[in-house]
Amino acid sequence: MASIQLSSSLKHTDAEVLAIHCSDHRFQAGFYEFLNLTLDLDENYDLLVLPGGAQCLTLVEYLPKFSWAGWKWFRFLVEAHDLRRLILIQHQDCGWYKELPFHLHSSSEPRQRQEEDLRRARVALARERPDLSVELYYAGWDANEHITIDAVSA
Ligand SMILES: [Zn+2]
User: Fold this and answer.
1) Global pTM value
2) In angstroms, what is the span from residue 129 Cα to ligand 1's centroid?
């Protein structure tokens, strides 16, 4: 089969950002728009796409092998690419959270569980790499099913 030539070309600019978000296909266009247009990253970011997003960074006791892999990937990207800024996005109706036992969180309300994990991840990341800036976001949808993004406070 002949090569397929795309209009995309190789980027030579250095990335300073790592974004971590969920795999859920319903949100990919929204995540892309948010990162590239709203935050103006212009595709200059590394990306980890995992079920549950950065939740893997909080699983030390419940799923330690998942946690190990999440931290391994995080450390590799941050160190290999000298990244400075992390963007963690959770989203509404995340299927990954439906599989998690409720005792892992102080609330049974889905959004509160996800925001709790974002804050836990920020604390753990700050302990390991206090030089990195960490931003937390929650994606949902409005009455017209347009994707919405809220910043999550510390
Ligand atoms: Zn999800």
Assistant:
1) 0.94
2) 26
Picking from 85, 79, 89, 74, the residue whose alpha carbon sits closest to that of residue 132 is: 85
> The domain containing residue 117 runs over which residues?
24-151
Question: Is residue 9 one of the residues assigned to a domain?
Answer: no
In a domain, 13, yes or no: no
Give the sheet arrangement for strand 17-21, strand by strand: 45-49, 17-21, 85-91, 133-141, 147-151
User: What confidence tens digit (pLDDT) does each residue in 75-128 have?
Assistant: 999 999 999 999 999 999 999 999 888 888 888 899 999 999 999 999 999 999
Among residues 89, 85, 73, 96, the alpha carbon closest in space to that of 20 is found at 89
Strand pairing class (85-91; 17-21): parallel
Q: How many angstroms is it from 99 CA to the middle of ligand 1?
A: 11
- C-alpha–C-alpha distance, residues 29 and 26, integer Å: 8
User: Ligand 1 centroid vs 8 CA: distance in angstroms?
Assistant: 28
| 151 and 84 Cβ atoms separated by less than 8 Å | no
